[in-house]
Amino acid sequence: MKTEVKIFVFLVVFFVFFAAFYGVLTSFTEFTGVVALFLTGMLAALIGFYLWQTGRKLPLRPEDNPDASQADAEGDYGHFHPHSWWPLAVAGGGAITFVGLAVGWWLAIIGIFLLVLSVVGWVFEGYHGEYAQ
Questions:
Q1: Where are the domains of the chain?
Q2: Whole-angstrom Cα distance, residue 6 to residue 29?
Q3: Distance from CA of residue 59 to its chain's centroid?
Q4: Are 68 and 29 in contact (CB under 8 A)?
Q5: Model confidence over 13-54: pLDDT tens digits?
């Protein structure tokens, strides 16, 4: 997880620097942007700290080992349907739900119904019964 920690350390430095830069640019008269950028940096620090602590406890992953071969990362990643249309339906239901939050509650209810229906369809796409072969 070394790469992920480096990315989040960079994000902490980036957001804290630009929080200070934004504060100087606005003469610290507008605090909303400064606080938002600073808190975004602290959120990145929280995630980076978690990844760093987790990475210390776990063995080295093949992605972190420069001498690793492709065979080191092999294994079962699960079964995925190659031609599934359900992710498109989930995205459509989510889009209708969020537009409904801006337009009206009636559209959000329709979107939530479509979102739940499409998520259930996606989850049970490969299910063919208890004793299916």
A1: 2-64, 86-123
A2: 33
A3: 24
A4: no
A5: 999 999 999 999 999 999 999 999 999 999 999 999 999 999
